[in-house]
Amino acid sequence: MNDTVTCAAELTVALPREQALALFTAEGERAWAGEDWDPAYPAAGRSEGPGAVFVTTHGHETTWVVVDQDPTGVRYARVTPGVAAGTVAVAVVEAAERTTRVRVTYDLTALSDAGRRRLTAFAAGYSEEIAGWEAAIAAL
Predict the structure, then answer these.
(1) Which pLDDT score is estimated for 20?
(2) CATH of the domain at 128
């Protein structure tokens, strides 16, 4: 079982950089991540930019904090109490007029035995998960 995992994978979005990156914000993911993705904001009206906080409840309740957000990507800190904590980064690898390639990197640390089991399973299925994201985005 893993105490920590770092998983990275790339996907292509058939949109210019700004529109592609918008799909990896809390609100942007609503378009493709499924009905279970329903972020809530403790500070109403503050959904983007460094310091913005949102909470998701699919699977386990997770608190997310926007650490950095600029035209080259976005990075979040996230904590799922009793399970795992760490960061998620979405970085532009290459951008053209109609396509953007991004790298999604999760760097997580288990907070319990259950968290170690979840991280092990997460790492094993990460490539397939990101491929699923790419397919869901392409279907928009």
Answers:
(1) 98
(2) 3.30.530.20
